[in-house]
Amino acid sequence: MDIPASPSVVLCRAVCKSFRGKGHAAATQALDGVALTVPTGAMVALVGPDGAGKTTLIRLIMGLMPPDSGAITVLGHNIVQSPHAAESSVSYMPQKFGLYEDLTVQENLDLYADLHNVSTRERRERYPILFSMTNLGRFSDRLAGRLSGGMKQKLGLACALVQSPRLLVLDEPTVGVDPVSRRELWSILLDLVKQQSLTVLVSTPYLEEAELCGHTVVMFQGRILAEGAPQAVADYARQRTFHLATRPGVQPRRVAAAWLTNSAVVDAVPEGGQVRVVFKTPAGATATPPSVPDEPGFRGAGPDVTVFKEVQPHFADGFMVLLRQAMAPPRDLPASPGGGAPLPVSARGAAPPPPQTAAMPSAEPVVEVRDLVRRFGNFVAVDQVNFQISRGEIFGLLGPNGAGKSTTFRMLCGLLPLTSGTLRVAGHDLRHARASARQTVGYVAQKFSLYSHLSVRDNLEFFASAYGLRGRRRRQRLAWAVAEFGFSTLLASATGRIPDGFKRRLAMACALLHEPRILFLDEPTSGVDPLARREFWKRITAMADEGVTVVVTTHFMEEAEYCDRMVIMMNGRILAQGTPAAIRQLGATAAVTEPTMEDAFIHVVRRDPRRSSSQAGT
Amino acid sequence: MSARAKLAKPRRIFAMSRKEARQMLRDPSSIALGIVLPLLLILLFGYGLSLDAHHVPIAVVLEDHSPAAQSLFGAFAGSRYFRPRALYSMAAAEKLLSAGRVDGILRLRHEFSRELAAGHARLQYVTDSIDANRARLIQNYARGVIAAWLAQRALTHGWREISPVALQPQIWFNRGLNSRYFLVPGLLVLIMTLIGALMTALVVAREWERGTFEALFATPVKPGEIVISKILPYFGLGMTGFAVTVAAARLLFHVPLRGSLLVLILVAALYLLVALGMGLFISTRAKNQFIASQAALLLTFLPAMMLSGFIFDLRSMPPAVQAITYVLPARYFVALLQTLFLAGDIWSVVVPNAAVLLVMAVLLLGMTRRLTVKRLV
Amino acid sequence: MNGFWRILALIRKELGAIIKDPRSRFVVVIPPLVQMIVFGYAGTFDLTHVPYVLIDQSRSRESLQFLSRLDGSGVLTRIGQVDNIQQARPLLDSRRALLIVQIPRHFQREILLGRSADLQVIADGRNSNTAALAIGYLNQIVSRFNSSIPRRPAASAPPSVSLRIRSWFNPDLLSRWQITPAIIGLITMIAVMILTAMSVAREREQGTFDQLLVTPFTPLEIMLGKVAPPILIGLAQSAAIFLIVRYWFQVPYYGSAGAIALCFVLFIIASAGLGLLVSSISSTMQQALLGSFAVVMPCALLSGLATPIANMPRAVRDITLLNPMRYDVQAVREAFLQGATVRQLWPEFIPMALIALVSLLTASWLFRHRVT
Q1: Shortest CA distance from B216: residue in chain A
Q2: In chain C, where does the domain assigned CATH 3.40.1710.10 lie?
């Protein structure tokens, strides 16, 4: 054991890595001169948009890939020369958790314990701790494949902690996991760092999670933009962050969408019934927001906004400022690496934005669900669910993994027969409706359901044909999709090889070709970086303004703010239903006077008497 | 640390093999492929498939109604190879042959008994030769029946047989020329290829596709241990398939085992290692289940069926095709199986063939070990 | 009419996916052709090369005459000459020789005396089919030799019988004529079943199947769109392989063009139906592949391709009635060698059509009623 007493656990210097493109595609520079230090006992978060190089950096540190150049030292071992030197002291949890789905919880744990040479005595001490920490004890005989996303993630962590590592490396451990499970994971991690002086390196697309770490590293296009305490990153947005209160009856999401188009604005999101705006330049000494140029089509500064108030910047605000600065050329909306060209707001291109007050959803119900029940054997996945969705509404389905959201969603789309109850989408049950009824519906699945062998053009043309578009309309709609989503340079590329951000856009474009009146979106933003999420919601807001009804499931609580109405589901039942403001108020307690959506969600879910049984997942 | 890692090696291998065995046993498709399909094959080959014809329907056209003709008809009726049907016009018989209702026509013309009395009779025999192999066998059976009939007549009339050369055939190793005796042992080559190569072709590719290798590579497990742990469970399953097939061959179908069981087991284990080596090598190279399965089908299974000498004799193939068979391990195993079951421990067969298998096993497993690097990409 | 355009789009997309992906393109083009050529040569029961060891204890004019016939047959090849069985045995044991031919000491004397000389032949029975064929060849040579020997008229000579054999449809009894046409079915069935089963399973694994169900496609349209491309590819493969059999292996084709075409069409539809059936009960590509394999394997063995159906026991023969390849093998052979026309092949075509219909209907029912 000849490890020099080094204060840093991981040391990277001038690390570069590029990937050869397949076929005639150009090589991509995944990492470009990265220098990183992870001090002993620290908890370091790697954040950045898709394609920033987070996963590549982690794999290089784990010795799973050789760097093109540069030096990497882990626990005093030179990883470039001997990639496996440090492996017995480092635990790693990759994106897919590395679990064998056809082994039970106990068998997975035993396997990793054996591989890490954990003795029987150590196991006797360690297993009870791991089980109580993760609440997995009762499920030790269950196959890992049958666990819910949150449980899998905890099992992955338990497998990584079955030895006492000196360094724990986690790659996006919370993607696809509901907020309750995410909070539990983070509290486990924070305890570990505090009690066992463990060093943790974690990558995440969730900006609020970065705030929990002592040290954050912002990555973008293979380079490190900034690093330091979360507050240091947040400070980049100091004096630039404001809350805008909107006039009663004006939806914050519409105002946010309008402000995002302005070149003076870095970021605008609905938050707590208001709009949070981050400006490009700092405010003056008077704490008033910078003047906003009057740009064509921009009416955000108009009569809809009543009050500006400067607020404390969050990590996310500083992150957005950094990213916008790093993007060249500075445009109003970014070409994020996973994103591409800037996008106009309207789904119809030149059409003027609709009046912001007149777009209240009409009362005419487009989706009606009454006493909906779905059983799988003895298991009741959806239990007496009722709701109605009006035309032009954005309707959110929220809930932890296994709450029955996806089952409900699949029944709405006609993919799954219902056990009992009634269900009407635009007056039809889609499962038995004739083809014409499905003509009005668009569906974007959680995984990009695209034909990866086919080119972008082939995918578009296939779905155009599938929806029966022909002649002039077909040409128009295809031209619209190409222009709207910026596919012009990609048309001939195989879909499997274009960046994830474009795949997501293509899936969206394919579902929109036939101008559906109702759009179903299943976790459209899971694992998506903040930039792409903003872009996505801007589009959805514009479509709702045109009268398209949108039904969406999401794990991001702050995204619930974009909805007109929402339900929170748990154990197959609806726990709460209403506008975001009404739901938010459910989280109010004596201690929390201004509850966030996440507070409300966790409050509602924990209040549910049957919560404990939900751990089983589906 | 390094000393501790080295000492604990058997434990890691055991843990990894146990994991692999559990995955194998829990996947219904591996049970179907590893156990149900072999059993089905044994029963099919044992009971269903045979190259030996019996009770072949033929038409005997009796244009001659003499006692000699009746007696010849009786000889055919008494043979277990034929089920003759007496007809009186050639046209009717040809119609039956065209319709596939009979497989051959024996025509005894008006002058049959007259010619026979004169010393030499000419018979006409027509076969449906769409299945040429069967037609040839049936023709040989027919010759045999006629020769036996002549000999019987000669005996009863006190005539002396004077064909200048009389063939006295003797068949070694399979006196009754029972095709089951070579098809059932040959089946071992199919079953062990199925388990050894086709099933394992997917196991490494699956870990790549499911992303489990990434977590595994970050543990202290050694590449060699990964390879060994993939071999052991499938080796166990393959040897189980071997035991079941040998037991069925001996007990159900009474196939003789003239060589020693020990040599047979050793040789089978050797071939199984080669098959595992092929499967794992393909899987490690392909990293994709679809491609791996196609490659395994094309490179291992179909050759084992067509190019091994299991059904079709290698000697009859053109030199170019024969040259291909020398690269395929199945041909060496089939030679060993047929010899050990029917002929005995003939070292001049066992030693060279086993040596080739040994070299192949070492090469394939060695290459697989070299290809297994704890690196992504 | 909209449905028609939609199906067309689905077919075009499926074909595009196969043709544009280099690996799929390779899989549908090269292996079938290579298999046909290699297996066409490998799949023969004819013996073209019978190595034998000679023990000539006679060393006479007569034995030389006999041996010149033996060696002039073009089939038997003498690999050595030894003095006794003990010396010959290792050559047989090690499979270098297939036969031991022993000419007895008194061979010449017996023949000259008008008696019968025994020719001892020992065959390696490890492959019983080969042994039987080799002895059959030898028998023919011996009887030709016998008839060439001038016979002295003897009062007590028993009558002899000569068998004049006519082999309908395959006069030279070439087993290649019997096997190569039948292999067309085996190769296309493997390709068509796997393509069909995998294309549905791939959509399931990639999540695009749900997307299809949400579009205006009806389940029937999806099924037709999924089945048509493998059928088209199978037909192209059949046509290409047919040409190889006809012109490379020179197997004569006497049937009508319609007969073989209809046979291919029906058999390929039935294969696609079975592939669809497999895919409707499997959820991963691996299961689809292994499932297809588990169907193709017994179908091939019970088709009469390698071992005749007539040799099977009754119960097994009844099972083969459910096997589409059985009818295909029969119909293709009849079309090639017997010159069958469509009219004569109805007994084969109707069961194939029924199997196709039943498998497609069952698969479509399963698609509708499968709970995901």
Answers
A1: A98
A2: 50-148
Q: Give A511→chain C minimum CA distance, Å.
A: 9
Q: Which residues contact A430 (CB under 8 A, 6 or more apart)?
A: A412, A413, A414, A437, A438, A441, C214
Establish, for the pair of chains A and C, how many residue pairs have beta carbons separated by less than 8 Å. 90
pTM across the whole model: 0.81
Residues of chain A with Cβ-Cβ distance to B4 below 8 Å are 117
| Binary contact (C215, A467; C-beta < 8 A) | yes
Q: Are C206 and C77 in contact (CB under 8 A)?
A: no
Do B45 and B68 lie in one domain? The reply is no
Together in a domain, B234 and B339: yes
DSSP alpha helix (H) spans, A261-388:
315-326
Q: Is A342 helix (H, G, I), strand (E, B) or coil?
A: coil
- Cβ of C243: how many Cβ atoms within 10 Å? 11
Residue type at position C43 = G
Q: Find out whether B156 and B163 touch, Cβ atoms under 8 Å.
A: no
> Number of folded domains in chain B?
2
Residues of B in contact with A107 (CB under 8 A): 19, 22
Looking at the fold, whether B70 and B148 belong to one and the same domain comes out as yes
Q: What is the CATH number of the domain that holds B91?
A: 3.40.1710.10
- Domain with B64 in it: 56-157
Domains of chain A: residue spans and CATH: 8-228 (3.40.50.300), 237-326 (no CATH), 365-440+516-614 (3.40.50.300), 450-515 (no CATH)
Please answer whether residues A204 and A176 qualify as being in contact, where contact means their C-beta atoms are separated by less than 8 angstroms.
no
Peptide bond into A329 cis (omega under 30): yes
SS3 B35: helix
ipTM tops 0.85: no
SS3 C163: strand
User: CA dist B185 to A471, B193, B328, B360, Å?
Assistant: 65, 14, 18, 22
B22 with A95: Cβ contact below 8 A: no
Please write the tens of the pLDDT for every residue from B209-251: 777 888 888 888 888 888 999 999 999 989 988 998 898 888 8
The reply to whether residue B50 touches residue C291, judged by beta carbons under 8 angstroms, is no
Question: In tens digits, what is the pLDDT along chain C, a chain of 372 residues?
Answer: 677 888 888 888 888 877 877 777 887 888 888 888 888 888 888 888 899 999 999 899 888 989 998 888 888 889 999 999 899 988 988 888 999 999 999 888 888 887 788 888 999 988 888 888 888 888 888 888 887 876 655 545 666 777 777 778 888 878 888 889 998 999 999 889 988 988 888 888 777 888 888 888 887 888 888 899 999 999 999 999 999 999 999 999 999 999 999 999 999 999 999 999 998 888 777 778 878 888 888 898 889 888 888 888 888 889 999 999 999 999 999 899 888 888 889 999 999 999 999 999 998 888 776 644
Question: Which residues of B fall within a CB distance of 8 Å from A92?
Answer: 214-215, 218
Q: Do B42 and B67 belong together in one domain?
A: no
Q: Which amino acid is at A542?
A: A
Is the CB of A453 inside 8 Å of chain B's CB atoms?
no
Per the domain annotation, does B148 fall within a domain? Answer: yes
β-bridge partners, B237: none
Q: Are both B86 and B107 inside the same structural domain?
A: yes
What is the CATH architecture assignment of C50-148?
Answer: 3-Layer(aba) Sandwich (3.40)
Residue A290, both tokens: 């910078």
DSSP A171: E
- Whether B66 and B151 share a structural domain: yes
- Report CB contact under 8 Å: A435, C213: no
Yes or no: say if A356 and A527 are a contact pair by the CB < 8 Å rule: no
Domain-embedded: residue B167: no
Task: Name the residue among A1, A87, A102 with its Cβ closest to that of B220.
Answer: A87
What does the block give as tokens for C371? 């709970």
**CB–CB contact B23 A102 (8 Å):** yes
